Amino acid sequence: MRISTRSPRETAVAARADLNPDRAIRDDELLIQRTFDAPVELVFRIWENRDHAIRWWGPEEFTATELEMDFRPGGKWRAAMVSKQFGTSRMHGEYREIEKNKRIVFTFAWEEDGEPGQETLVAITFTAMDGKTRMNFVQAPFRTAENRDSHVGGWSECFDRLGAYIDKVAA
User: Which phi and psi angles does 111 have, rounded to 5°?
Assistant: First the structure.
């Protein structure tokens, strides 16, 4: 069952997560794909469960210190992560759509000096492939290509940590 609280603009962004991965990427969006050697049900559970998510959330050299998740459409989430180099970084959002084992859509905004930064929409799809899971991650819209590119390393490192955590849990 699909439950959604998305606006029309958000629907367009979320739909791009399902598109052909070889398509041209727009300047205002980020697309990252990963394949995990684990079934969709496990990968989705690791995204939906706070006790799992806090163990891999954030780039290398960051530790998630807070993670609140009301994992349902309309539910809020909030996180904090700390690194020696950057100190504490806070972010938050709202879940817009959840389709068990298939899709998660949520808003994402950094908190800057206690105020919300630019809000983007994240759409993640999960596809079963011979016992493995293909994950498509789309985040948009970014104001500039440079702003988009500044997120590539952080999310990529986060998904490296996710992959290592999945391997550990699946073993």
Answer: -100, 120
Provide the b/e sequence for 65-80 (b: ≥16 CB within 10 Å). Answer: eebebeeebebebebb
Going by C-alpha positions, the residue among 105, 128, 118 that lies closest to residue 151 is 118
- pTM for this one? 0.85
Torsion sign (Cα): 71, 74, 75, 81: positive
Reduced to 3 states (helix: H, G, I; strand: E, B; else coil), residue 110 is strand
Digit-by-digit pLDDT tens for the chain (171 residues) are 444 455 545 455 555 545 455 556 677 899 999 999 999 999 999 999 999 999 999 999 999 999 999 999 999 999 999 999 999 999 999 999 999 999 999 999 999 887 778 899 999 999 999 999 999 999 999 998 888 988 999 999 999 999 999 999 998
What's the one-letter identity of residue 123?
A: A
